[in-house]
Amino acid sequence: TVNREIFRPVYHFTPQYGWMNDPNGMVYKDGIYHLFYQYNPYGSMWGNMHWGHATSTDLIAWEHQPVAIAPDALGTIFSGSCVVDKENTAGFGAGTIVAFYTSASDRQVQSMAYSLDNGKTFKKYARNPILTSTQRDFRDPKVFWHDATKRWVMILAVGQEMQFYSSPNLKEWTYESSFGKGQGAHGGVWECPDLLELPIEGTELMKWVLVCNINPGGPFGGSATQYFVGTFDGKKFVNESPEITKWMDWGKDHYATVTWSNAPEGRAIALAWMSNWQYANDVPTQQYRSANSVPRDLSLYTSRGETYIKVTPSPELLKLRNKSSMKYAFKVDRNHNLDKLIDDNTGSYEIDLTIKNKNAEVIGFQLFNSRGEEVEMYYNLIEKKFYMDRTKSGMISFSKEFPSVTIAPVKGQDILKIRLFIDKSSIEAFGDNGAFAMSNLIFPSEPYNRISFYAKGGSYNVTELTVYRLGLKK
Ligand code: FRU
């Protein structure tokens, strides 16, 4: 029998016991990052949704906290968001953390709760629900302060569109507009919205980004995160490129992505649930299910007149690096093998790769272990694509949707740079200076500790291959 705790990540958040899906209500206040999440405290499958709670001072080391919001007569507690009501617009007190969530029963309505002790405990608002509809899928409120109109804005996922509401006081909400018809991917229901203004790198400009999680209908089946770039005037979002679908991550395990409210220094810090509704209930962990992604800082970049999200692993992740790292440099004509990445590999590590002087058509490598389990990654520079193949990664047979090859478009720059975050049962690849991210689960029976590079149709130099052991400092 396999000890399934071998799959529990070290530097990714997981519930101690029970089921987790979406990150919820992420809010920063007075030096503390709060993470709430869709939680079933009674078992490791979806159901009985509560808001679980954890806190951190650095986005890396999380402390488990008691359940924050539990089901009541209006229903179980679905996804939502928190704000800090600095100006006391709601009358609960200046600086109160106010939570918005969907009360789910045979209908879905929006409810509110507030915390008078900085997020430790929540009281439900006496006049819930605050917003109802005849629509069946009506959920996942994201609330934020829109400075230009001095109003709160709420975005709701409603079937296959997003609806915008506004409010002066967080309690009374006015419908403003809907967005979605004919825009982006529509292979499934739209869920877990976010709307934020992000800076375009190297300019003074900002643009609005509407984050729209969709399930099913992702590029490789099941769940995924798409986004739209455009303008927002407090009432209406306008997509600047209606004909283009944009994805935030090109893996199979990146869903329900939302950002921290009130993050310091105006940062846009995103977190995703690292799973996919196709098999989230079947992954071979025991006692608990699901981890979040590593935190990622979002900004924008422009390429050929089109604006895209740039995804950067949050700088806090550098703190995980153990002093001892291994560094390699070599040329690849056909093959180059390393029989050991690091001593005593416990499965939590980072690989940084820089490739220069390339004239090969395909640049690739397999990460593998002594059991013949492997993940293969490669750039096809003719196709301008990056691939990750987990069809032989370890345990794969728990779902026919799990074995997969995921593919990201790349520019194929002169210098290729990749960072891989590996943590027992996941690989997150960040490539080409933030131009693509790819997150995939893996269930190997022992850590991959060997790597084998290959070149097709030419050669290249790996000028840097650094392997860092990653761990929380005790
Ligand atoms: C997304 C989602 C949300 C919903 C929650 C229920 O994964 O379906 O739309 O609020 O999960 O757990």
Topology:
Layout: E1 18-29, E2 32-40, E3 50-56, E4 63-69, E5 76-85, E6 96-104, E7 108-115, E8 123-124, E9 138-146, E10 151-158, E11 161-167, E12 174-179, E13 189-199, E14 206-215, E15 224-232, E16 237-239, E17 246-247, E18 255-259, E19 269-273, E20 288-289, E21 296-303, E22 306-313, E23 321-332, E24 335-338, E25 348-356, E26 362-368, E27 374-380, E28 385-389, E29 405-409, E30 416-423, E31 426-431, E32 436-441, E33 450-456, E34 460-470
Parallel strand pairs: 1-20
Antiparallel strand pairs: 1-2, 2-3, 3-4, 5-6, 6-7, 7-8, 9-10, 10-11, 11-12, 13-14, 14-15, 15-16, 15-17, 18-19, 19-21, 21-22, 23-34, 24-33, 25-30, 25-34, 26-27, 26-33, 27-28, 28-29, 30-31, 31-32
Residues 21-22, 38, 49, 78-79, 102, 139-140, 191-192, 256 line the site of beta-D-fructofuranose (FRU).
GO cellular component, one term: cytoplasm
Keywords: Glycosidase, Hydrolase
Organism: Bacteroides graminisolvens DSM 19988 = JCM 15093
Kindly describe this structure:
With 474 residues, the chain is mainly β. It has strands at residues 18-29, 32-40, 50-56, 63-69, 76-85, 96-104, 108-115, 123-124, 138-146, 151-158, 161-167, 174-179, 189-199, 206-215, 224-232, 237-239, 246-247, 255-259, 269-273, 288-289, 296-303, 306-313, 321-332, 335-338, 348-356, 362-368, 374-380, 385-389, 405-409, 416-423, 426-431, 436-441, 450-456, 460-470. The protein has no helices and 34 strands. It binds beta-D-fructofuranose (FRU). Beta-D-fructofuranose is lined by residues 21-22, 38, 49, 78-79, 102, 139-140, 191-192, 256. The site of beta-D-fructofuranose has 12 residues, from strand 1, strand 5, strand 9 and strand 13.
